[in-house]
Amino acid sequence: AIRMTQSPSSFSASTGDRVTITCRASQGISSYLAWYQQKPGKAPKLLIYAASTLQSGVPSRFSGSGSGTDFTLTISCLQSEDFATYYCQQYYSYPVTFGPGTKVDIK
Amino acid sequence: QVQLVESGGGVVQPGGSLRLSCAASGFTFSSYGMHWVRQAPGKGLEWVAFIRYDGSNKYYADSVKGRFTISRDNSKNTLYLQMNSLRAEDTAVYYCAKDKAQGGLDYWGQGTLVTVSS
Description:
The complex is a heterodimer of chains A (107) and B (118). By secondary structure, chain A is mainly beta. Helix content of chain A is 0%, strand content 50%. In chain A, the strands form two sheets. In chain A, strands 2, 4, 5, 6, 9, 10 and 11 form a seven-stranded mixed beta sheet that branches. A four-stranded antiparallel beta sheet of chain A has the order 1-3-8-7, with no helix packed on it. The N and C termini of chain B lie far apart (40 Å). In chain B, strands 2, 4, 5, 6, 9, 10 and 11 form a seven-stranded mixed beta sheet that branches. A four-stranded antiparallel beta sheet of chain B has the order 1-3-8-7, with no helix packed on it. Chain B is mainly β and 118 residues long. At the A-B interface, strand 4, strand 5 and strand 10 of A face strand 5 and strand 10 of B.
């Protein structure tokens, strides 16, 4: 199975900050990567698919980049509603695998 | 609007069985693959299983292979997860999710809690 790692595992940030989360795959996955946001007690929400394509309805302050093994999720100007946990997921091959998550909380 | 509603969760003893259902509406269910994803209390997301739109192919996480079976009834717009030989480590909220053809899981249910405990 392809192993996904994320860094950092958690960090604190302030509203208005530019934040970047990194995701790494244990082998090349081309651009078969998605990013999700999850808030406590809620289902995950798809933010980005195909590594860099914004899901419909997702604010443009979210962006994704990368291919192969290294990927990033960037939030250009953190808003209060963005404090959440973020997961990457590869769908290059089965079993599908998620990263362990990155929790973004308020500084 | 797309809706996915899971049901069937509950408390079950180790070694027991449970069948989860996911009722879909708001989209052409028979045209999309579907997933089950779970989340243990306080933990991250773990993908469980996938079934193609027509049921022709199924894939499972190693942790559930041989114990869980994913299936669907396109005439009833319903996805299922039959869970046998349940273990304490299967305790989690189970989500069904719609596969986005271009990648990712674009719609999720609210989840149903499965607790395996004696």
